[in-house]
Records
---
Amino acid sequence: KENSKKPVYSSKKKNKRDKKGSKGGKYHTVKRGETLSTISRKTGTSVSQLCKLNRLRPSSVLRVGQRVRYK
């Protein structure tokens, strides 16, 4: 007997990661000297909304290279 294996096809679609991030939001990468306030002005998102989206406090210290979600 010839042992031939048939390919298995899945009906599930593979999740392709969005370039914007895994949850499909928009992100800003923190640069030197930036605060939540400056990011808020650049992105048009309130500081309180940035805090909610990123589980931060308004007084949080941001690190250079940190990704902050704004939408």
---
Amino acid sequence: TGLVGSRLAAKLASQGHKVRVLTRNVASAKARLTYPGLEFFAVNDWAKGVAGATAVVNLAGEPIATRCVTV
């Protein structure tokens, strides 16, 4: 649902790929990702979300904007 993931989902969906979004907050993800053809899976359904997938892209991580940066 972040910058990279939302753009990747849009591109893949526009090319006709089946895109499944595994998220901790389905309602928030649906509000951010409004592209047609996406499927959303909450934490308790993640195994179902990856079943039969030909690829998985993991973009989970700590937001860099919240970290202290030293130069």
---
Amino acid sequence: LQAIRVPMKVLIGSDDDLKRRVDRLQTVRPDVPVQVIPGANHLNTMFHKEFRDAVSQWIEDNAKSTTGKGP
């Protein structure tokens, strides 16, 4: 995980069974932002507005940082 040098962000539902793993990831890579989607689980996270907004914002932010240009 330390070798990964591309922009990352973790989006996880508060009710996702994999959240424990994300919590551990934060101890190894505290520089990787994590956003917890309240009330979401592993299967329905992508249907929450917070998820879609976070993905859109991440793409916009990283398009600027990797190309020097905005969308």
